[in-house]
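Weekly structure sync, notes
Attendees: PL, DS, HV (note-taker this week)

Item 1: Iron complex transport system permease protein
DS walked through the input record. Source organism listed as Stackebrandtia endophytica. Sequence as pasted into the shared doc:
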Amino acid sequence: MPEPVTSEPTVTRTTPPLPTIDPADRAAPVERRAGPLPNARARRRYRLIVVGLAVLAVVLAFANLAWDNPMPIDTEGFWIIAQMRSTSLVIMLIVGFCQATATVAFQTVANNRIITPSIMGFESLYAVIQTAAVFFVGAAGVTAIQGVPQFLGQVALMVLFSALLYGWLLTGKYGNMQVMLLVGIILGGGLGALSTFMQRMLTPSEFDILTARLIGSIANADASYLSISIPLVVLAGGALWFCAPRLNVLALGRQTAVNLGVDHRRQSILVLLLVSVLMAVSTALVGPMMFLGFLVAMISYQLADTHDHRYVFPVAWLLGFVTLAGAYFVLKNIFYAQGAVGIIIEIIGGGFFLGYLLRKGRL
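Item 1 (cont.): predicted structure, written out as tokens:
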């Protein structure tokens, strides 16, 4: 007998319903466009950082003017004392701008974010000038190299030194940036050795006087230098700001910049000369501050998070002023050692440099 046909059980498959999304929870389409800040979130973040740094700069500036001021704030005496202290704030604005702008532009041209303009021997040349004045003239040499003509002479000598170096090493047939940096390091080492040799020949009292001049300090600056420093800084800084679009192209590398129609060698020499003016003014004004520019530039790259120098420069300037004003306020009012601003910045900047180098693992 035929076996009865058994039908297989019917399996009913049901499609799970799609989850419903509340229109309010739907993510808005991401707005992206070509530019230094690609979307609204990046633009909002940049504005918040700039506003936050500006507010912090104003707070630190007012704290430096008002802290330990014996006069009530609504009296004329308060503002007279504040006006006397404001000279230090102007100097910090100039030094912060010079160090930050010069370091960002120099690292762009060198295509390396480790090195700074200090590697070209500005500090060593400054140390040789100061040491030679004390070595040949004695303790009175420190006074002899003060004044507007002497300040202009120091700035002119440093700019001439860098112009000769750049002109010699970048305009030759085989000139390139790596050779220029190597020669700059060697010359800086040679000038440092010459300065050390003369320092060994000084008397203890002369050496003490010289040491105070070789440490970067806001107190070293003379208010009479500001009438010369400010126009130089405005001209050099304004020219770098005008060159910001070309700096963006130079940051892509030599080959790419040449393919895009930029005269790489000419633009590099122009930028390096402007950098030398800023570094010469800063060094002649307050003394050597080797790691300030590096510290400010590296943090600015992280905060600005863009390649466009028109956005990096303001963040770097504000950060440079905040760093100097904060260090000056703490050392002056808490540790009573405002002359050690350069030492503290060198320690923090040097530690930041080593940490960055170890984390990156290469130069």
